[in-house]
Write a structure and sequence with these properties.
This protein is an alpha/beta fold. Helix 2 links the parallel strand 4 and strand 5.
């Protein structure tokens, strides 16, 4: 894995946030985000398979460990603050679990519209094709990159095989879940892809408007202490959020 400084000054920052990319595997996902605070540095992580998705044949846990190595290269000891968008939030969770298991402390985990892998299955390929045939940004972007991208497909395959372990007792980081209020299919009334019963869960999660922003964090309390989770709903959908 590699990294790029997105905001701040690593030498003088009071805290550093390591940002895990979404399915495309690129730190450029975070380019639109404004600086958080002059005292906070934000380091964007790039997938080790960003330019070679055909070599992406590792498990999600192994992928997370490659990111952890890059994080340790930038910051040898904790505490650590981690952030991830979409599936990047799941990888950030696994990285946090690995850091904690090694004796390090993870202070904060920021999940940007990340579905809990213990509750919501990965996007099926038919859903990727659906996204490529609608205006998933509702006119807010001219972004044309296809969702059936080799890196996204490889990431989803790794996610299918991933079984997350809950945080050890007393070790849950303070977790902020930024959750989109709106479904991607809001007001479109287009034909949805045919999926099985399990995949219907993720279709509803990403396509329908959301109203239940309770303390369970969309199932993240299965892995993280519910007392450590704060849910903040924001306007926008899963894609326009970024």
């Amino acid at each position: 894995a590699s990294s790029i400084l997105l905001h701040g000054d690593l030498d003088n920052a009071l805290s550093t946030i390591f940002a895990f990319p979404g399915g495309f595997g690129t730190a450029s996902t975070y380019m639109p985000l404004p600086a958080i605070d002059p005292s906070v540095a934000v380091v964007g992580l790039n997938s080790p398979f960003l330019n070679a998705p055909s070599a992406f044949n590792v498990t999600l846990s192994e992928l997370a460990s490659l990111y952890v190595s890059e994080i340790r290269r930038q910051k040898a000891v904790g505490p650590y603050d981690l952030m991830g968008y979409s599936v990047g939030g799941v990888i950030a969770y696994e990285a946090a679990h690995q850091l904690i298991a090694s004796g390090e402390r993870v202070s904060r985990l920021l999940l940007l519209d990340s579905a809990c892998p213990a509750l919501v299955p990965p996007f099926p390929l038919s859903l990727l094709d659906f996204f490529d045939n609608i205006d998933r940004f509702k006119g807010t972007s001219s972004y044309k990159k296809k969702m059936r991208d080799p890196h996204i497909v490889a990431t989803l395959e790794a996610l299918y095989q991933y079984t997350p372990l809950p945080m050890p007792d007393g070790c849950s980081p303070q977790t902020l879940l930024i959750a989109a209020r709106h479904g991607v299919d809001r007001g479109m009334n287009v034909t949805r892809p045919a999926v099985n019963e399990l995949e219907q869960i993720v279709l509803q999660w990403v396509l329908d408007d959301r109203s239940d922003f309770g303390p369970g964090g969309f199932g993240w309390d299965r892995l993280i202490s519910g007392e450590s989770i704060t849910v903040v709903p924001v306007d926008g959908n899963h894609f326009s959020l970024m």
